[in-house]
Amino acid sequence: MERWRGILKVPLFPGSRGHYNVAASLCISTSSQTPTVPSMNAIFFNGDRVKGTGNPVIERLSDLERIAEVIVSKLGENVNAWVIEASKFNGPFAVYKDFIPSVNKWGEPNSYDPTGFPASSSAVSLLSNCLNEVKNTLSTGIEEQSLSEAARSSCFSQPNTILFGFSKGGSVLNQLVTELAFSEIKPSISSQDKNEIIPTSKESLLNSITEIHYVDVGLNCSGAYITDKDIITRISKLISERPLGIRFVLHGTPRQWRDSMRVWIGKEKDTMVHLLDTESQKSEGKLSVCERCYFANKPANMQMHFEVIESMDIS
User: Fold this and answer.
1) Could you list the residue range(s) of the whole structural domain that residue 84 is in?
2) Is the pLDDT of residue 192 over 70?
3) How far is residue 96 CA from its own chain's centroid?
4) CB contact at 8 A, 41 and 163
5) What are the φ and ψ backbone dihedral angles of 312, each rounded to 5 degrees?
6) How many structural domains compose the chain?
């Protein structure tokens, strides 16, 4: 098995004015040079832009392709990695308006609302457009049939999905978690979802999520973490009725969790951990949560905020 790596610039929907930059690192068949079904799809939502620091660590880990390489190195060569940057920026501030419709001009969420399932629908559409772009790049002179055959030849069937949200990208995770809580997911996987390289519907995306990693998330307003008890209770009930459990991992540094100017970040993190831990005790192992602090004995700085991407333990 080989890999295809690159930066894709794709619209969310045909005719969309805005384009997303997505770094992809995908499994491809050595023989046919076509995409194959991975063991899982890792989707990483990036945060605000930080430029001109002169810090080589920050510069390296601001690069979307480098982040994709880090994810693959941690999860293994059978994974597909997708690193998504917001389509719109207000100065350095990422604005995920397609995923979280209720945001202010700086991209900060006003609320998380499952109505219309915007985050899961947008994620499915974006991944589909990305995959089609990769296929078009690879498949010069190759019949579409061979693409399907490559997918069927994989030893995997329905790939799981593992989500990462870095910094402001954590707000997209919160919207997805909210949508998951209000979804009506059937416990069995339909035959049409099998042997798909990526989820092909918002239902199959939400049903495939097995891990959710918050990576040093933070906002300049409330809403960095889910603190709504009803959302967490609904998640717990949902996974009790489906085959796959979900593991939440909250990775953080003093840069966010101990910020004296934004004390709500640490408080929200503690609240979410408490709510998840309470529900996990009722879930017979299907729901789990852990928090991991990095560089705990160092003064807070911007470098550790990015360095956690390489340092995070996702085992």
Assistant:
1) 2-311
2) no
3) 13
4) no
5) -60, 140
6) 1
